[in-house]
Amino acid sequence: TGPHSAEAESQTEWTDVQKKIIPWKNSTPSLDLETAFQDRAAKLGKSNSRLIVVASLIDKPTNLGGLCRTSEIFGASALVVGSLHYIQDKQFQHLSVSAEQWLPLVEVKPSQLVDYLQQKKTEGYTIIGVEQTAKSVDLTEYCFPEKSLLLLGNEHEGIPANLIHHLDVCVEIPQQGIIRSLNVHVSGALLIWEYTRQQVIKQKQQQ
C-alpha cells in the first residue's frame, strides 16, 4: 500500500486503456478494435460509439492533435492516423492534451487507405467523406448510420479522386461566408458532434 502502489495501479490502468495497433494489416484489426472499444467504454464509462475518424490524409500535427482531443471528448471509437510518429510531436501533444492516452489510435498509411476503406465496408461501415461535391448532402439533412467512418481530406488537396470513388456519401457543411473552406479540424469536429448528437445523446435520452 502507499503512494507508490497507488501510482503503480494508476500506471497499469493507463496502459490498459491505451490501445495502439501498428500497422492495421499485420494484426486482426476488427477484433483488436472491438476489444479496445469495449475496454475503453467499460473503464471510462463512455458510450460504445461506432464512429471511426480517419485522418490519414492530414499532415499537420496541430490539426491531428486537435482532432485527437475532439474525438476523445465526444467518444469516437478510434482515430486513424497516417503515422503514429505524430503523437510524439510537441505541437500534436500541445493540442491533444493527452487525449491520445485514452483513445484507440490506428496507423493506416495513405497508400493503405483504399484497402482499409474496402475492409470497413465489408464490416458494415458507411464511408462518409467531408467534401463539397456536386452530389454532397447537407450536414443538416444527413442521418448518420450507427457504424460510420468519417474520412477527412488533406489540408490543401482535400480527398483525392481515387478515394472519392470509395465513399458512400459526401457530406458538406452549410456555409454563408465569403471564405468557402473550413479548417479540417473544425470540419471534422462539426461532423463528430453531429454524429454524437444523433447517435449517442438520443440513445441516452431514450434510456
From TrEMBL:
Protein's gene: Tarbp1
EC number, as in UniProt: 2.1.1.34
Keyword tags: Acetylation, Methyltransferase, RNA-binding, S-adenosyl-L-methionine, Transferase
PANTHER family: METHYLTRANSFERASE TARBP1-RELATED, RNA METHYLTRANSFERASE
Functional description taken from the UniProt entry: S-adenosyl-L-methionine-dependent 2'-O-ribose methyltransferase that catalyzes the formation of 2'-O-methylguanosine at position 18 (Gm18) in a subset of tRNA. Selectively mediates Gm18 methylation of tRNAGln-TTG/CTG and tRNASer-TGA/GCT. Gm18 modification can enhance the stability of modified tRNAs.
Taxon lineage: Eukaryota, Metazoa, Chordata, Craniata, Vertebrata
Family note: Belongs to the class IV-like SAM-binding methyltransferase superfamily. RNA methyltransferase TrmH family.
Official protein name in the record: tRNA (guanosine(18)-2'-O)-methyltransferase TARBP1
Protein species of origin: Nicator chloris
Superkingdom in the source lineage: Eukaryota
One BP annotation, GO: tRNA methylation
Catalytic activity, as annotated: guanosine(18) in tRNA + S-adenosyl-L-methionine = 2'-O-methylguanosine(18) in tRNA + S-adenosyl-L-homocysteine + H(+)
Molecular function terms from GO: RNA binding; tRNA (guanine(18)-2'-O)-methyltransferase activity
Quaternary structure and interacting proteins, as annotated: Monomer and homodimer.
